[in-house]
Structures are given as C-alpha cells and as structure tokens.
Design goal:
Accepts electrons from ETF and reduces ubiquinone. Its EC number is 1.5.5.1. By secondary structure, the protein is of the alpha+beta class. The chain has a domain at 18-81: Alpha-Beta Plaits (2-Layer Sandwich). The chain is 20% helix and 17% strand. It has 3 helices and 4 strands. It has helices at 23-32, 36-39, 69-73; strands at 16-18, 45-49, 55-59, 79-81. The strands form 2 sheets. The chain has a two-stranded antiparallel ribbon. Strand 2 and strand 3 form a beta hairpin.
C-alpha cells in the first residue's frame, strides 16, 4: 500500500458499498470462509470478533488501492466499488 501513494480524505464517505450487508457473515463466511479477506491485496476486508464473541464484517476503505478486485471476485457480487471523491486514490509516479 505504501508504494501506491494512496491518499484518501479522512471525512470522505466510503466508496465500497455492500448491496446486502447480511451476505458476508450470513452466506460467504459459512460457505467460503469469507474470501474477501484473502483476495483483496490491500487487506481492506476483514472479519473482526468483538469482545462479546459476535463477528463483524469490517471494511477498511482507507487501505483501498482501487484495483476493483472486490467488485469482480466477490462470489455473491455484493460489493459495489465506486470511484472515490476528489483526488483520492493511488498515485503511481513511475508509470
């Protein structure tokens, strides 16, 4: 992520949206062990276990390198990647 020079504004709305928030834990976790936590090269998606023992699907959008892998590889096609606001995103100076 460091090499991509990704920059997101702190108060920017999340550019990664779930069509149905129940799918990651209700369908993808039991069937596929939630593949989003493995196919994302920047570690944007993770399953977090809360102190109560309850599991939560967490999106760390600030880590996103805008490769759109999640939009393509999600088995339920539940993740919708949209372009972030303003000038946010990766800056590959040597390309």
């Amino acid at each position: 992520m460091f090499l991509s020079n990704t920059n997101h504004e702190e108060d920017q709305p999340c550019h990664l949206k779930l069509a149905d928030p129940s799918i990651p834990l209700g369908k993808n976790l039991p069937l596929y062990d939630e593949p989003a936590q493995r196919y994302c090269p920047a570690g944007v998606y993770e399953i977090v276990t809360l102190e109560s023992g309850e599991k939560k699907f967490q999106i760390n959008a600030q880590n996103c390198v805008h490769c759109k892998t999640c939009d393509i590889k999600d088995p339920a096609q539940n993740i919708n990647w949209i372009a972030p606001e303003g000038t946010g995103g990766p800056n590959y100076p040597n390309m």
